[in-house]
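Hi D.,

Good news: the full-assembly prediction came through. Inputs first.
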Amino acid sequence: MLDLKGYGWMLWDGVQLTLLVGVCALAVAMCLGLIGAWGKLSRNPAARMTANTYTTVIRGVPELLLLLIVYYGTPTLIQNTLEGFGYDIIIDINPFVAGVGTLGFIYGAFSTEVFRGAILAVPKGQIEAAHAAGMSRLQMVRRVLLPQVWRFALPGLGNVWMVLIKATALISVIQLPELMRNSDIAARALRLPFTFYFAASLIYLSITIVSMLGQQRIEAWARRGVREI
Amino acid sequence: MEIIWDSLPRMFDGAVLTLEITSLSVAIGLVCAIPLALMRVSRNPLLWGPAYGYILYFRGTPLLVQLFLIYYGSGQFSEALQTLGLWVFFRDAWFCAVLTLTLNTAGYTAEILRGSIQAVPHGEVEAARACGMSGSGLYRRIILPKAFRLALPAYSNEVVFLFQATSLVSIIALMDLTGVARVIAARSFAIYEIYITAGIIYLIVTYGILYIFKKVEYRLSGHLRERKDTGIAAESAALR
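Then the structure:
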């Protein structure tokens, strides 16, 4: 049933782009997540409010709508602003940049919560001990906080990755030739929609299964220095 | 500003369709999820095998692919569906949207219920067995009520995710909130005004859903809260 009639390479190209978008978006999301978690736990009320607004808004609005806002809304916004200053230019956002940016921005909110929980899971005594041993704030973060935060954040980050890699299918809406878009093109060209969408779904499923196994391995590796109960 | 005001009635029509699809899929999905979760916790491989496969497939693939698979994919079998008399349904975008979202949320909800069924304290099950309950009575009286209460926080998240996921039905040309916003934005070029208005409507409904679930959770946990109105509560707190 799954005879792809020579369009298999197209799906393969799509898989590579899907994974590239996923990895780049995860990197963006993790950077935003660390900044967001710092903001949420900061003593500065402005930083706290910004971080809280960020997570509240992002988690309350559908990804598709945010994608449309970033892809179609941002160029118009920039153009209108520049027009006010007397410049008249047309801006086109590259679909790859828009996709990575939007997904990174959305899942940055989710990883903010992950990192916040992970930072709070580090025992307070260790931070006090680091201060007592004469470490500066930066040294404390680098030597005591971050090495443990990674381990506590791993399960949550794994979940973020699984949701994120599935959300990359949405980027097909802005014509980026990733897996979903390419199977769409093939399905329409050959009039075999079920075959190609089913093939695409099996590819996504295998990405998920491989990620699940990988997550277990990485978590076991991160736990290697911890006493088992 | 005027354009937002003018398009609000149409946006509300879209929001009604969004809510309609959400509530239908949530209700039917929950009904399907209960037997699925019970199959998943069974020890019989003929029961948990299919349930495991179903849950893995629907949680492991993007919703957009599932939607296209059912809406466009059914076209590949149009002749067979016509002879069965089912083609009228699969031709309809609304039916396909509800079907996909129902199947999808059934998978996620079944996994949540599985977790909470397995989290029911063992002592309660033992006590029920000691009282002579077994089989369906045990599930109906002890395990499922407890499991539902344990599942509520995770389930509220799933309902919110499903509510937001309904925005995907605009891709198969249904006029839900996102669909209406896309049409108005394409015609009026007031792109970010319209999309941000739609986003605010989504935001309000999302936090409305979360608020309702919080109220339900509060009501269902009455027996776990300390009483405030009598002196006994303060006394017992002091003793602890």
